[in-house]
Specification:
The chain has about 500 residues and is of the alpha/beta class. About 20% of the residues lie in helices and about 15% in strands. The chain is built from ten helices and 19 strands. The chain has a seven-stranded parallel β-sheet, sandwiched between helices. It is globular and about 65 Å long.
Length: about 500
């Protein structure tokens, strides 16, 4: 568990720290993107940090101090949003209460940077407001797919995670792992593992399934047309060309819990249950939706969403954005950990310090960097002091067989037949560790998130290759970790 430094949101307000731009999902590295057009053609307001990068701001997450009426009353929050609108001279609407208790407010007509700045300043001037942070956009942290035939990541002595011997001690049976991602597609190796999940994508255009939030976490596809997610800081369209659906959540779920039925792949915790929770769609997803999804998956209450009957012991979040961890994210992660949920996250794919990314740089998570087949830090993987451990993430150049093979779908836009493919990315490394956490939880159900993290970090092995910048405690070793923990 690493430290956390509070961030005071500024949006160019002189006394506060910088707001960072968006994160990476697309092949080829980072993409600090300008906002895409909203459904209906309106342009979302943007925030600018001191580097000149831009980010999509669909609204703000406002945390009120506990004694404030707005902290508990939606009516009071609605009234306060109207008051801030009058003060800023810009329409502001109270959208909903997040699972952490913070308020999500939207800026329905703001179309210039200064409009968002005025609204942020109005909230920050209120002594009853604890924090104001943008409702940021985040992305999946994987790289493009291709086929291969072997799961070297589980068993190879050079840089595998030494998983097969660990199955003599635990297989994940009875443990629920939530995959907060793009949703799930039908696959024979996953169908028997799925618990009733939820779709938390609130924006209809992003959802790409004809509606907003509902109890169907199916992945309809996150395909994109050239430039549909705006432009990067150099003015280039993002993505740079049309992009097929990734089926990212299906791939991640397979690495965690694909059935050991001999038909294709096997997951690290192949008898665990998967709770699919959808937060990512076209052009990624928002932190407000992710906060609610994390709250619900870990057993918390989210207004308007049915109670989760299967709270997750482990949550995997193979996603991220390029911004330092803020109070809204930190509050949700701490609450999940306090409820007994171990949260595993990917470090990011920009070959830079993971501290500048969220949730990788947040407290109360296990942050995972990626290694290649030789045990080096993968060329794309983020690194640094916030990284806790490293796990196989693959590296497909020059050999496609050196990626991470898992469950996928053949559809280019909408779902088609099931298949298998390999991806590379810290998105692929994180579910290895999430699966290991599930094995630990089965073997010793009394383990707390802190003790699970300690066990994983204390029982790594040295990377056989090289790592510049910091790869945490070392390469995860499943059998060694399970052997160090007493069952019961």
């Amino acid at each position: 568990m690493h430290g956390f430094t509070p961030l005071r949101i500024s949006l160019a307000i002189a006394t506060a720290a910088a707001v960072m731009g968006t994160g990476v999902a697309f092949a080829g590295g980072s993409s600090d993107t300008a906002p895409p057009a909203r459904a209906g053609g309106a342009t979302a307001p943007v925030a600018t940090d001191v580097t000149g990068a831009t980010e999509l701001v669909q609204g703000f997450i406002v945390g009120y101090k506990s004694q404030a009426a707005e902290a508990k009353s939606n009516a009071a929050a609605e009234k306060d949003a109207a008051a801030k609108a009058d003060k800023a001279g810009e329409p502001v609407s109270f959208e909903r209460r997040l699972g952490t208790g913070a308020a999500l407010v939207e800026l329905p007509e703001a179309d210039e940077v200064r409009d968002a700045q005025k609204v942020a300043a109005a909230f920050l001037a209120d002594p009853d407001v604890a924090y104001v942070v943008p409702d940021r956009r985040v992305y999946a942290t994987a790289v493009d797919p291709a086929e291969y035939e072997a799961q070297w990541d589980l068993y190879e002595t050079t840089a595998g995670m030494n998983v097969p011997p660990a199955w003599k001690q635990a297989t994940g049976k009875g443990v629920t792992v939530a995959v907060i991602d793009t949703g799930i597609t039908g696959h024979g190796e996953l169908s028997s593992k799925l618990l009733p999940g939820y779709d938390f994508v609130s924006d209809t255009w992003t959802a790409n399934d004809g509606g907003g939030r509902d109890n169907d976490p199916s992945d309809p596809g996150d395909w994109l047309k050239k430039g549909e997610c705006g432009k990067d800081k150099n003015g280039n369209p993002v993505p740079s060309g049309d992009r097929n659906s990734s089926w990212h959540g299906t791939h991640v779920a397979g690495t965690i819990a694909a059935a050991a039925d001999g038909s294709g792949t096997v997951g690290v915790a192949h008898e665990a249950n998967i709770l699919p929770v959808r937060v990512l769609g076209r052009c990624g997803g928002t932190t407000s939706d992710i906060i609610d999804a994390l709250t619900w998956a870990s057993g918390g209450t989210v207004t308007g969403v049915p109670a989760n009957k299967n709270p997750a012991a482990v949550v995997n979040m193979s996603l991220g954005g390029k911004f330092t961890c803020d109070q809204a994210y930190n509050a949700a992660l701490k609450a999940a950990r306090d409820r007994g949920t171990t949260v595993v996250v990917s470090a990011g794919n920009d070959n830079t310090d993971a501290a500048a990314y969220s949730p990788a740089g947040c407290a109360d998570v296990i942050t995972v960097a990626a290694s290649d087949r030789e045990g080096n830090r993968a060329a794309y993987s983020n690194y640094g002091k916030v990284v806790d451990v490293t796990a196989p993430g693959g590296e497909t150049s020059p050999w496609t067989e050196d990626g991470i093979r898992s469950t996928l779908n053949k559809g280019t836009k909408s779902p088609g037949d099931e298949t298998y493919a390999y991806y590379q990315g810290t998105s692929m490394a994180a579910p290895h560790v999430a699966g290991l956490a599930a094995l630990l939880k089965q073997k010793s159900p009394s383990l707390t998130p802190a003790r699970i993290e300690q066990a994983i970090k204390s029982n790594t092995v040295a990377l056989p290759g090289t790592c510049s910048g910091g790869c945490g405690a070392g390469l995860s070793d499943a059998d060694k970790t399970l052997g160090a923990v007493t069952g019961g």
